Amino acid sequence: MLDETMRSVSKAQSLKDIGTPCLLLDRDRMDRNVGRLRERLDRLGVALRPHLKTAKSVDAAQRVMTSPSGPATVSTLKEAEQFARAGVTDLIYAVGVSPDKIDRILALRADGVDLAVTLDTVEQAWVVAEASRRTGDPIPALIEIDCDGHRSGVLPGDAAKLVGIARALEEGGRLRGVLTHAGASYGAVGDAALRACAEVERASAVQAATLLRDAGFACPVVSVGSTPTAHFAETLDGVTEVRAGVFVFFDLVMAGIGVCAIDDVALSVLATVIGHQREKGWILVDAGWMAMSRDRGTAKQKIDQGYGLVCDIDGKPFGDLILSDANQEHGIVTVRPGSNARLPDLPIGTRVRILPNHACATGAQHGAYQVVRSGSDAIEAVWPRFGGW
Q: Which of 162, 104, 106 is nearest to 133 (CA)?
C-alpha cells in the first residue's frame, strides 16, 4: 500500500476563506483518473511508468506510481533529484541528454538511483559511453524513436542510424531499449484518429526494437506513451511500458480531443471576482496569466476555451463562461463569443473555479496544491510543488 500521508493544513481553511488565486486539486477526480488508466493498462498487459512532469509533487506522485520506488518518468534533472530524495529509484530521464547533464546523472546513479537517459544521435552515445568508461558505471540509455514527425528521434526504419547509435553507446554504456512519444496525438480528434495515432506509436517502437535485436543488440524495454494514445490503444503487443503524465489531472485540451470529460478535470484555479465592466460584458477576477499561464492550447480546437472554463465554487461549469483574456494579475471573464448565454450575476467577492487548458503549464504557476474532495469546500491538505531544472 502506498504511503498516503498528506501535508497537514496549518489551520482549518475552506474555499470560502483561503487566499486567491490558488491551485485546487480534486483528490477524488485524480484518484479516479489514475485508476482508470491503471485498469486499462492492466488489461493490455503492460506496465505504467507515469510521467511526473505534470505533478511535480512528491505527495501526488505517491498516489500515481505503482510503488514508492517507481517506476516513473521525468523531464528534468531537478525532478529526478527531488523524487530520488523521496525514495524513487527507478527513473527514465525522457529528454535528450547533453554533456553538461552527465555529472548530475552520475551523482544520482552513485546514490543508488537507476536513472536511464534518452538519446538519438551517435554524438550523445559517445558522451554517455565515455562517462560510463571513466566511472565504471555503464549508464543505461534508450534510443528515442520519431514515430510521427512531431519532435525529435530516429526514424523507426533507419537501421543504419539505430545500429550506429547502439554500437557507439555500448563502448561503455548500455542499451536498455527504445522510447517514443506520439506528440501528434494532441492534435488528433475523435476515437478513430486517436486509435490510429496509438497504433503508429506502438508499431514504430516495435519496428525499431526489432531492427536492433536483429542486429544483435538486447532491447529489453519498448517504451511508448502519451495520455491520448494510452487511452485509445487497442493493442500494445511488443510494448513493455507506457508513459503518460497529464492523465493524472486531465485538462481542457484533453477534453477537447475526446480523451476525457470536463467532469474528469481534477485541477482548477480558485479566483475571486474583483470588478465589473458591465457595458463591455466583463467580469474581472484576480486570476490572470500569472495564475493560469499563457497556454492557449484550445485555440485551434472546435471549442476555444480562452484561458480557461469558468465554474462555480463547487466546480460546476456555468456553461459558456470563459476566461476570454488575461493580463498579469487580472482575468477577464465573458460569455463565449457566439453564444446566446447570459452573463451570470457574480457580485464582487464571489469565488469561482477556472479549469485550465494545460494542466502542466497552469500547475507550474503555483507552489502547492490545495487538496479538496469532490462536493466539499474544506481544504484537507496542502501538497507542495516544485519547479526548476
A: 106
The domain segmentation of the chain, as residue ranges, is 51-244, 262-384
- At the topology level, CATH places domain 262-384 in Lyase, Ornithine Decarboxylase; Chain A, domain 1 (2.40.37)
161 sits in which H/E element: helix 159-169
Please tell me whether residue 282 adopts helix, strand or coil conformation.
strand
Does the reported pTM lie above 0.70?
yes
Alpha carbons 322 and 312: distance in angstroms, whole number? 12
At 151-204, the pLDDT tens digits run 899 999 999 999 999 999 999 999 999 999 999 999 998 999 999 999 999 999
CATH of domain 51-244: 3.20.20.10
For residue 288, the one-letter residue type is G
Residue 147 cell numbers, joined: 514515430
Give strand pairing partners of 333: 283, 323
Which residues neighbour 300 within 8 Å (Cβ) at sequence distance 6 or greater?
187
3-state secondary structure at position 146: coil
Q: Give the whole-angstrom CA distance, residue 150 versus residue 297.
A: 16
Cell 485540451 maps to which residue?
253
Q: What is the pLDDT of residues 124-152, one digit of tens each?
A: 999 999 999 999 999 999 999 999 998 89
